[in-house]
Design brief:
This protein has about 725 residues and is an alpha+beta fold. It contains eleven helices and 44 strands.
Length: about 725
């Protein structure tokens, strides 16, 4: 295959995600590692595997269990929130010792033991979503029809612990905001003693109802979507302790933070509407609540008998309090590991007086074994490594506040891990590809195979530090290009939004796509500017109140700085393409800086930020009724009349994250202003385009549009 085959390979491999092991669960004794993976880089069916005694074996092949039934709607939504594109066993849960595994296939409940034996189907009262064994492995809790039910692993005793009180109420599921913006995909948690669960009750009746239809299938009715747009009502989430003996206790959470304890701002809302995390460990339930304005976070311990709560910590921030994945977490001693900022605007961790050092940007807490906490962090924004920190007593000095810090991963890359006992599963993405290594006692004892296809295009990024803000960029040039042999049109391929870095020392699908565009004759520049993660809280908060101007300024500055370092860049022919926030940036670029950008492809772009969800948009822009100027400043619809360059809008018509209304309203505003543009609707496609033909041809259509637009602008054809 040559580079022209890349779009087909990109689509067939689901962005090179197939054949990649994931979802690692390590048993507490470190003996077993469970994970899901398909059998090849183009196989979309995930199987369940176990790595044990230095070897892996398949536990479940779904193709041998009969045809899957239709997905329950709640499972379809869960997969969309998780951006799941595989089939088969895509998720699983285990008992405490990782000996009993439960999973769902097409709404059917299956159980398998890790010590041998065939998978067993367990008959249930209805389609199953998110089955989870009790810690002792005797029962499985699951959601069906909005009810939280339990059934014995022997197939007996299926019953509801609670039923929904109405059509808009569900138990045991995450609401849209929790799953999409807070990374909480779960809605129930077992007690360590297996006799009770803490369960989220979600009432979405107050949330505005929107409708999604498929114009290509007019015979189908539209689908209702409860979507909490900025400034509108959220779902109401409450927590309840449900016991297997049938008794129930509501968790008595505070409704608001006293105003005198809160950092106020232009818009202040102290209602504790959000439930970012719930855990139940040997010390009891531990939950967090966040205010609507996101400037306060309570960490609360729960008495499961009475439902009473006691505040452990109150975290505050004058802009917004960033949620750190994996926190809060308790060590074996009961000490709480939580997010803590240290001088210099470093995003750090704290356990009592023990903290991570200044300059080490913590990304995620992975877990704890005894008094040791495992996490990922960066001392270079282009790399993420796995670290451990041993908590030390608060008494001794001079070690006070330091603990014992160790870096586990080596070499350039983006590393993460799963831990259990003295076993670490080290998952490493490097410039050469991906490897998964099993360490025991710090020494390698095995590998877990990665079956991802090798791309037909090899990324060749040149990493740059650009401009006065030391922006991190990656420049991809054609492999056949010789410096000084001629000018190259430039294509920017940013995301540049919160939560995702593209400029890293690792091979990823976006580096492969960037190189493919480069092989077609472009100098492709990718830049992470202000607002992206990995460079501290001050860097992230630079977009507070304006998510467009500083981000766009950084792309312009990076482009000009790159041209100074590489004179072959032709600044008279500059295109930009992006998806989601990157699509928003691409469209904003040709609207506001036509002097720099000559064409844009904007995919799944949120064009009116008042139509995006509460937790994500109010964090950066506040309340649209109180601070409308901030939403207006970032609105693409409001500035549609400025368009003077070619713009292609691409949008999946089944997208329930950035709904198609965004594309339609911008297109209508452009039409009303008499501004020509191109619209490419994708029937049946969601926010993650997974249909093979569509995903492959979309890259080719983008290329054709950019070639025509940039050549036309340059006058060369």
């Amino acid at each position: 295959m040559d580079s022209l085959d890349l779009p087909r390979q990109f689509a067939r491999t689901r962005r090179f995600s197939l054949g990649v092991p994931r979802g690692f669960v390590v048993s507490p004794d470190g003996e077993r590692v469970l994970f899901v993976r398909s059998t090849a880089g183009d196989d979309p069916v995930s199987r369940l595997w176990v790595h044990e005694n230095g070897a892996e074996r398949m536990l479940v092949d779904p193709l041998g269990l009969g045809a899957e039934g239709p997905l329950p709607e709640a499972e379809r939504v869960r997969r969309e929130r998780a951006r799941e594109s595989s089939q088969g066993v895509v998720a699983f849960a285990t008992d405490h010792h990782a000996r009993v595994v439960a999973f769902a296939l097409g709404g059917a409940l299956w159980v398998v033991a890790t010590d041998g034996g065939a998978p067993r189907r367990i008959r249930t009262a209805g389609p199953v979503v998110d089955p989870r064994p009790s810690p002792d492995g005797t029962r499985i809790a699951y959601v069906s029809g909005g009810a939280l039910r339990v059934v014995g692993t022997d197939g007996t005793g299926d019953r509801a612990l609670t039923e929904p009180e109405g059509d808009e109420v569900a138990y045991g599921l995450a609401d849209h905001v929790a799953a999409e913006s807070m990374d909480r995909q779960r809605g129930f948690w077992w007690s360590p003693t297996s006799d009770a669960l803490i369960v989220a009750r979600v009432d979405a009746s107050r949330v505005r109802r929107w409708w999604l239809s498929d114009p290509a299938r007019p015979e189908l009715p539209p689908r209702a979507v409860r979507y909490p747009a900025a400034g509108t009502a959220n779902a109401e989430t409450s927590l309840h302790v449900l016991r297997l003996d049938g008794t129930r206790t509501k968790v008595l959470t505070p409704e608001r933070v006293p105003e005198e304890d809160h950092l106020s701002g232009e818009w202040t809302d102290v209602a504790l509407e959000y439930v970012p995390t719930v855990r139940w460990d040997a010390h009891g339930p531990l939950i967090t609540l966040q205010t609507r304005d996101q400037r306060s976070l309570y960490v609360l311990e729960v008495d499961p008998k009475s439902g009473a709560t006691e505040r452990v910590a109150h975290l505050r921030d004058p802009a917004w309090l960033e949620l750190m994945p994996g926190t809060p977490l308790r060590l074996g001693s009961g000490r709480v590991v939580r997010h803590r900022s240290v001088p210099g605007h470093t995003r750090g961790l704290g356990v009592g007086a023990t903290t991570t050092p200044r300059g080490l940007q913590v990304r995620e807490v992975l877990g704890a074994v005894g008094e040791r906490v495992w996490f990922t962090a960066s001392d270079d924004p282009l790399e993420t490594h796995v670290w451990s920190l041993d908590h030390q007593d608060d008494e001794p000095a001079p070690e006070r506040g330091t603990g014992t810090l160790r870096r586990i991963s080596e070499g350039p890359g983006i590393h993460t891990a799963a831990v259990g006992g003295d076993t670490v599963v080290l998952d490493s993405r490097t410039p050469e590809g991906q490897t998964v290594t099993v360490l025991r006692g710090g020494e390698p004892v095995g590998r877990i195979a990665v079956f991802a296809e090798e791309p037909v295009v090899t990324p060749r990024p040149r990493h740059l530090t650009l401009g006065e803000r030391a922006l991190r960029g990656a420049l991809h040039l054609p492999s056949w290009h010789t410096s000084g042999s001629g000018k190259l049109p430039v294509l920017l391929c940013p995301y540049a939004g919160p939560g995702l870095q593209l400029v890293v020392h690792a091979r990823a699908w976006w580096t492969i796509v960037a190189q493919w565009f480069a092989e077609q004759g472009y100098a492709v520049l990718v830049t992470d500017g202000r607002g992206t993660p990995g460079r501290g809280e001050e860097w992230a908060r630079a977009v507070h109140g304006d998510q467009l101007t500083p981000v766009l300024d950084d792309q312009v500055d990076a482009l000009h700085a790159a041209a100074e370092q590489c004179p072959d860049l032709d600044l008279s022919r500059v295109g930009i393409r992006g998806w989601s926030f990157g699509g928003f940036l691409a469209a904003g670029a040709v609207l506001h800086r036509p002097d720099v950008f000559h064409a844009a492809v904007a995919g799944a772009a949120p064009t009116d930020l008042r139509l995006y969800d509460t937790h994500w948009k109010e964090r950066y822009l506040g309340h649209p009724d109180v601070q409308p100027e901030q939403y207006e400043r970032c609105s693409l619809v409001a500035h549609a009349h400025l368009l003077s360059r070619p713009l292609m809008l691409v949008h999946g018509l089944a997208d329930d994250n950035v709904l198609p209304v965004h594309m339609l309203r911008l297109s209508a505003a452009l039409l009303a202003a008499g501004r020509p543009h191109t619209v490419l609707p994708l029937p049946g496609a969601s926010h993650l385009v997974s249909q093979e033909e569509v995903a492959a041809n979309l890259l080719l259509l983008e290329l054709a549009f950019l070639r025509k637009s940039l050549d036309f602008q340059s006058g060369s054809h």
